[in-house]
């Protein structure tokens, strides 16, 4: 298969809270917004997108795209060239940090947040930029 990228979507009743979280704490930009669907993207890479959608939309054809995310079993990874700098910025802004900056025994340097839907956000140092 020759895919060009993987995109992610969250189905949630917390449409606005989710949008605000990703904009405020992770710097994503709004690329498209309607009353039931929002598309966010990385500011310097607009092709990298995160979709947010309200559940039970009549225009959405399949039932598996209708239910809200239950809040368990998934996490998002955001890679950074300088995770310590990102952590310090988050602390200054009083971000809702769940796991403070840590170096794991397997080599990852990271910290975490949790979004309004219970999704863990893992902000990780790129392994090749240490």
From TrEMBL:
It holds the Pfam family Glyoxalase. Keywords: Lyase. InterPro entries: Glyas_Bleomycin-R_OHBP_Dase, Glyas_Fos-R_dOase_dom. GO terms for molecular function: lyase activity. Residues 8-122 form the Glyoxalase/fosfomycin resistance/dioxygenase domain. It comes from the Bacteria. Coiled coil: none annotated. The keyword Lyase applies. This is Lactoylglutathione lyase. It comes from Leptospira harrisiae.
């Amino acid at each position: 298969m020759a895919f060009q990228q993987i995109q992610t979507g969250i189905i949630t009743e917390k449409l606005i809270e989710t949008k605000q979280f990703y904009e405020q704490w992770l710097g994503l930009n709004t690329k498209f917004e309607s009353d039931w669907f929002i598309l966010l993207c990385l500011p310097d890479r607009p092709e990298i997108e995160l979709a947010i959608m309200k559940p039970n939309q009549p225009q959405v054809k399949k039932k598996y795209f209708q239910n809200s995310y239950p809040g368990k079993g998934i996490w998002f990874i955001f890679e950074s060239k300088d995770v310590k700098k990102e952590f310090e910025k988050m602390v200054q802004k009083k971000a809702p940090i769940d796991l403070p900056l840590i170096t794991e025994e397997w080599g990852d340097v990271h910290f975490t947040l949790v979004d309004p839907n219970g999704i863990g956000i893992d902000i990780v140092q790129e392994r090749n930029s240490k």
